Every structure is written in C-alpha cells, then in structure tokens.
Amino acid sequence: MKKGTKILFWVLSACSVLGIIASVIGWRKKASAISIIGGADGPTSIFIAGKINYTPVYLLTALLILAAAATALVIRKQHRNKTDRPQK
C-alpha cells in the first residue's frame, strides 16, 4: 500500500474516533427553558424552548467517514491483489 493512502486512512480514522468521543461526551448536555408569560388580568402563555440534539448526526457522520475509509482500503487492497497476480 502506498504511504499516502496509509496516511489518509489513519487521518480519517483519527477524525472519526475524535468525532465519536466528542459526541459521547456531549451526549447528555441539553439546554431547555420553560417560561410562563402572563399577568393577573390577562391570558397566560407558556413558552417552551429547547435545543435540538445533533449528537446522532455527528455520530452517524463519524461512522460513515470511518466506513468509507475502511471500504476504500479494502477495495484498494483487492484491486492491488488482482493486478499483482501473474498473467497466464
């Protein structure tokens, strides 16, 4: 395998692992707020605000990058093995 391909594979793998670790660390952090708006003589409103949790998106992206890198590595290895065989 060429040196550049190995370096690319390890860089993509490291990025994926760091993304997974960052997602797991931030998994439980949620921000939300509930406010009651109203007065003694008027209608009362309840305002609910929350933050969308993007952790599954980050995890999926990291896993897809890792899977793409692994697939590219396997395909390259198979292609190299086919071309290295002696012709009959």
TrEMBL record:
Transmembrane segments: 7-27, 57-75
Keyword Transmembrane helix appears in the UniProt entry: yes
Keywords per UniProt: Membrane, Transmembrane, Transmembrane helix
Keyword field contains Translocase: no
BP GO terms, sorted: sodium ion transport
Top-level taxon: Bacteria
Pfam families per the UniProt record, alphabetical: OAD_beta
GO molecular function: lyase activity
Record-given protein name: Oxaloacetate decarboxylase
Organism of origin: Eisenbergiella tayi
